[in-house]
Amino acid sequence: MRKEVLFNIYKDQNEYKDIYILVRGRKKRVVLQALKGYFIILNLKEDYKLIDLSLYDNIYYKIALIIDRLGSDYISMYLNKWISNKIYSELKNYINNTS
Amino acid sequence: MIIIYHCYGAAHSSVLSAAIHLGYLPIKRKSTIREIKDVPFFDKTTTNQIGIPFYFGSDESGNKIYIQGLGGSDKKIKQLLKELMTQNNIPEEEVVLVYTLKNVNLLVRIGGYLSRGLGLIFPGRILAAFGLKIAYWRFVKTVSAVKKKNC
């Protein structure tokens, strides 16, 4: 499986929102700086909101990380998508109220 | 078109390549150490700035030239750019990424580490510039190939 960096986890049909995960890792700052730079140089509209899910870190992410290190990208990605989607669903109302 | 020269920290090899591309440094003779040291951005970017694409100038064909340090996240960031372009219907040929770190020698690596990593700017900068002078023709070759293909 191709390892994606920015992958779609959630499509909210009612609110026309696409939610993406920016893959985590040791160099998160570097990747974020690159993302912001690319928005500028490609003249893209910066209508995104970053939600740091590491604040809601839980056992599933750790399991996903271990599975990834064991070599199964697909299961790891699936687990990441599932848990991120679950957290987002729980946070959705709070995020909408604060934005 | 956008041309991004990228290396580890956007301090040495990408800066030299962009400078050759834009004519700040000669293509027909080797630059002197002083000329290399005087190039804007040379040995200036810090580790906190890794990841940020810096605008370096526009060439005679109107291509925008950027330099960028990708740290150790080359694969991730390249994939990120690719996906961002696909999602926004930007043709793949619109952005050219040129890897310049392959041209550096041990002197540049040691000089870069001394200057950017350890903060020993004076010896590090001289060593890096000297190393780049030695490897100069490799950079000219890379830049010439990029210009031939895209300009």
User: Total number of helical segments of chain A?
Assistant: 3
Distance between the termini of chain A: 35 Å
| N-end to C-end Cα span of chain B | 9 Å
Radius of gyration of chain B (Å): 15 Å
Largest interface (C-beta under 8 Å): A-B, 22 and 27 residues
Main-sheet strand order of chain B equals 2-3-1-4
Q: Give, in order, the helices and strands of chain B.
A: EHHEEHEHHH
Overall 3D form of chain A: globular
Fraction in beta strands of chain B: 15-25%
Spatial ordering of strands, largest sheet of chain A? 1-2
Percent range for β-strand residues of chain A: 5-15%
Major pleated sheet of chain A = 2 strands, antiparallel
The protein's oligomeric status is heterodimer
Please give the number of β-strands of chain A. 2
Average pLDDT reading of chain A: 72
Q: Structural class of the secondary elements of chain B? A: alpha/beta
Q: How many individual helices of chain B?
A: 6
Q: What percent of the residues of chain A sit in helical stretches (DSSP H or I)?
A: 40-55%
